[in-house]
Request: fold
Amino acid sequence: QVQLQESGPGLVKPSQTLSLTCTVSGGSITTNYAWSWIRQPPGKGLEWMGAINYDGSTYYSPSLKSRTSISRDTSKNQFSLELSSVTPEDTAVYYCQIFKYWGQGTQVTVSS
Reply:
């Protein structure tokens, strides 16, 4: 069974870059498509942000593409999210996900 665990700062200042890492166990990020990042702002629905495939190729939500970067470290079986120029509207619970498997989510608050 695949397990995913998000990690990263819980507080980011406006205009800075949000960086999160997803550590994967029980499966390899060099297999399968769409190791994804998804977020849920308070009181709103889930928003898919982007994904990285088994071969390292990436694709992003058009609305976030200019600020989002997803990368991976195959030696650690991790994939990461960077979201630049954050504003308070980027405050959300951030999840990593593949197929039916989700991390527990990590709260990120953007505030000065």
